[in-house]
Amino acid sequence: MQSLGTIRDIEDAELELMLSWRNAPHARRNMYTRHLISLEEHLAWWERIKMDARHRYFMYEDHSEPLGIVGFNNIDILNRNASWAFYSSPSAPRGTGSRMEFLALDYAFFKLDLHRLFCEVLAFNEPVIRLHQKFGFKVEGIFKEHHLSDDGFIDVYRLGLLANEWDAARESMYNKLSNMIKA
To answer: Distance between CA atoms of 119 and 137, rounded to whole angstroms?
Structure first.
């Protein structure tokens, strides 16, 4: 079985690295929170989030190199759903997002035992919308002019995926990713 990397718990020593990626322009422009986050603000957020079972964050690494963050939020055990997001290191190689997404979906549906996973993507981030769709996510709705950005109000896409849909797409996606890694 070809390795796609792994997601693991974030170590306290990696919090500054995590913040540097989160504050990188390529990540910040695609987030709801767009200001430069101070270390103090980041550490306070981390203290709150790591104690809350409704939120789980992981470091993605490949060949022992940290390359990105995967987060699950508002995990609802009763209704078996959650939202998720990810961002990568500015120096992450091409294909990192796909590998993170595969591992995140496996975690969501096989470890968290979710029935449904969803995400929100700012409308101008078309590459991420297409990436999610490649993995089987469907656009469930568009929140018109939902988020105020530097350029005015923009639409937000809500995408969702059910466990049985991931089950049906998983093997094909794994084979595609494995072939990309071999190339």
So the answer is: 9
Pair of tokens at residue 16: 């500054």
The count of other CB atoms within 10 Å of the CB of residue 148 is: 11
Whether residue 97 contacts residue 87, with contact meaning beta carbons closer than 8 Å, is answered with no
Helix axes 163-182, 96-106, angle to 10 degrees: 140
Instruction: Quote the CA–CA distance of 9 and 20 in Å, as a whole number.
Output: 18
Rounded Cα gap, residues 79 and 26, in angstroms: 33
Concatenate the DSSP letters of all residues of 47-88 into one string.
Answer: HHHHT-TT-EEEEEEETTEEEEEEEEEEEETTTTEEEEEEEE
- Reported as a single tens digit per residue, the pLDDT across 115-144 is 999 999 999 999 999 999 999 999 999 999
Q: pTM of the full predicted structure?
A: 0.94
Contact between 37 and 19 (Cβ < 8 Å): yes
